[in-house]
Amino acid sequence: MLPREELLKGVENRDSIARVIDLAEQAIKTWEVVLTDFLSPPELAEMQRVFSRLTDVHLLAWGGYPQAERQRVAIARSELPLDQSQVSLVLLEIAGNFLFDPATHRDFLGAMLGTGIVREKTGDIIVLGERGAQAIVIPELAEFLTMNLQQVRSVPVKTQHIDFSELKVREPKKKELTTVEASLRLDAIASAGFGMSRSKMVDLIDTGDVRVNWKEVTQASSQVKSGDLIAIRGKGRLEVGEIAVTKKERYRVQLTRYM
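^ that's the sequence the OP posted. Answer follows.
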């Protein structure tokens, strides 16, 4: 048995991680590869921290493409090999004419959830503008959604299972930059990286729109460190690279922005 209470100590996403621990125990007992539902980035980050201490099992997360935010996790005894093909996923095309009634990610997700499914069963949704969207789901839902997902906003749609070779995901644009700051405060580093004013960044932090390593941070004075990932809803992500101290005792920070 795994040391459940010790593993759950201080965990934020307690229910999600507890379910993963249950599955890990099942994997140990049955010698089978066991799959989770889709986990969000904060859940994935926390799960990887929790399970990094264990030697009995190992994990493989996969969401259908390298940059996928929501991913399922395969869990197996450490003696068993794991690869991406063991993480069962299905790609659905949700096709319609959205030229006169454009739909957002939220619209497509809302229509899917409106059929009665739960969020944990769906992965990333890739919006394709006026042509509709693609959605990654667990295989057990594919037939149900092809029959029941027939409208998004006011637009009739045809939902069908397609091959992953038809996945239309663009590589994220990447921009390298360097900033020199008096401190490593979150508002200072993030405003430089995202190219916005310090006061605007403080507003975003105050309203809970900023996450560091997928955890919501509401203190503008929080200190960042090398390796941190800063994300802002709708504005992409910022990775903090090497930090050096200048002769004038300021901080030279390498940043990578993903858009």
